[in-house]
Amino acid sequence: MQALAPTPRPRPSHGPVPPLGVHLAGDGVDVAVLASHASAVDLCLLDVSPDGEIHERRVALDGPSYGVWHGRVPGVREGQRYGFRAHGPWDPAAGLRYNPAKLLLDPYARGLVGELDEDPSTRGHVTERDASGALVGDPGGPADPRNSAAHVPHSIVVAPRTNHPPVRRPQVPWADTVLYEAHVRGLTMQLEAVPEPLRGTYAGLAHPATIAHLRDLGVTTIELLPIHAFLSEPHLVAKGLTNYWGYSTAGFFAPHAPYATRAAQEAGPGAVVDEVRGMVHLLHEAGIEVVLDVVHNHTCEGGVDGPHLSWRGLDNPVHYLHDGATPARLADVTGTGNSLDFRRARVVQATLDSLRYWAQEIGVDGFRFDLAVTLGRGPSGFDPDHPFLVALQTDPVLNGLKLIAEPWDVGPGGWRTGQFPAPMAEWNDRFRGAVRQFWLADPREASHGRQGQGVRELATRLAGSADLFGHSDPPLMRGPVASINFVTAHDGFTLADLVAYEHKHNEANGEGNRDGSDDNRSWNHGIEGRLQDEEAVLEHGGFEPGLVIAPLRRRSIRNLMATQILAAGSPMLTAGDEMGRTQRGNNNAYCQDGPLSWVSWDLSPWRKDLLATTTHLLALRREHAALRSDAFFHGRPRHAAEDAVPDLAWFDSAGRPLDHDAWHDPGFRVLQMLRTGPDEGDRDVLVVVNGALDTVEVTLAEVPGRGGAAGCAWELAWDSDWEHPTEGEHGGEGTEGASADQDPAGRTGAQPVLLEPLSMQVYLSAPQR
Predict the structure, then answer these.
(1) pLDDT band per the 50, 70, 90 thresholds, residue 133
(2) Which of 223, 293, 370, 609 is the catalytic position?
(3) pTM, 2 dp
């Protein structure tokens, strides 16, 4: 390997600043990299011999031009490995950590190759191994002189992709959107209909079998966990685990190569990009949008004692948020050891450049921003008018995409649900908490004789969370679609585990079960964990507690699923919940790349029934405009003046409008929600909720103007007591149990109906002629 001789400082210039990154141009490449505090920067061209030895040629870059070092280098082609070495002061107290012994990734690289190992040379400061094998050293001590090139990933030159068909986005309206959060690898690793070489890959996600499942289910938009190139944290590697979720970004422009097929990986990073682009194209052809979960709040370099891989070595005080003290310390508002500093124009620029690249070159339809509060932090904390958030609203490439915020981080004032500007939507954690509380935590308390909460919080979430998303100028501009309604996500219990575990069981993570949330609001229905035989039925003359609990758990799952699908807002399902996926009580499976986290496609009878139920509920939402409102409700008629039907109304079990006392009574647990169709001829929907532990008799609400003076003839469309939606067909058992007096078509007028304990029913008004 070439010796690391000092590089003389080129003369500063103040000419035009070229585009950042390495771009093929003519017979070579144009190079530009930000390192505003450096005294010199080298482009390092790397070649690896068959025996693994790295041969390096260094080219000194010109500059800096407003902090950017640049040059044109002939003779460089696609597939060339490269990196940077940055010269400058090693002054940790001032936040300056320049060390030319460390090979640095290009933050704008379109492809990466290689892994990070735990060699001491990967740290910028001097480290050694302690008795346990961990690297220890003083981050404020001297710089480490060892060359890191053989122990870190390398950047790869990737040519612009010109052989793809044009991007034709499905452009699904927000009101029609059904999100499906999925992991590229975990979704298809066990899907036998996908050929084995394609399982767990970008190509496997776009296989006809995968697409058929998404389309049949009713998904319009798939939200993928991070596919930016990422690395596994050293403590996970030491335990034989991996960063399965991918929230440890090593490159914001490069796709994660291990998710590509073996053939694409062997063909090189350009082929990996092609496979990702092909995946997006095939999903578009099926009418499915692609949203990426992006982690622009921090990087894989971790805390100050972490590896010296890219941003830390190029411009540590610009890229990372510091606390302003002396000596300089990282300000960690993400819980990862570092946070990118969105007070800096160059950090905002890099993020916008990455988003535009994925939107224009790859063709994705939107982004979900992990820990998005960090992206809106200015000098005084979170600012809804932060330049980055303003850019998302005004950028002609980005402002028409689906933009979703995770509206919190772990810094001061970090919870900001409802405070992001339009056109952004937000994960609604208040929805998650309210639904779990009503259907699980409150009944758990009631089963022990303790009082829970009433219906007020649940009703607010069912109506679109105007208390959170209605504050805008002008008011109510964002609409209920700004609320991403979810009960589960990648972090936390699965839907099936919510009803089977009251305590997390994260022992497999190797952290003594200390990791993961303790605020789960779950209910095991009397027995912790899985049952011996979840398919068994009660035999006459015998009693087994598990056989009683299993159907109650399944009904609770259906209640949770229906609530998130039928509530006003944008529903988000977690992959596998529609088929009863379990993680055996692990609520933080971030490091579990195996069957524990992968979606299981081996469906027992009750899981097939759940899949049919979810499909049925999504079809109800799709077929009835009353369930897809894109505007907040006013409690007034939508249509002509003589039409007395409000857009939203609430009733008690006797069919009377709810009064003040009922709204504030913690023991009040039965509710009817009427939502009317937005256009003449649309069918109205009545959702009836029984959150009590007893069977209740309900008189369905009469709706003037719908069906004459006698009120509306309601048709039962679904009952959560049904194991399968077909139980309601042709006067089946489920329909007979739900109504005291129905006509042959399954309709009922103002007669009372019965609701099982902890259940819900959905009624449709008679078709208008």
Answers:
(1) confident
(2) 370
(3) 0.94
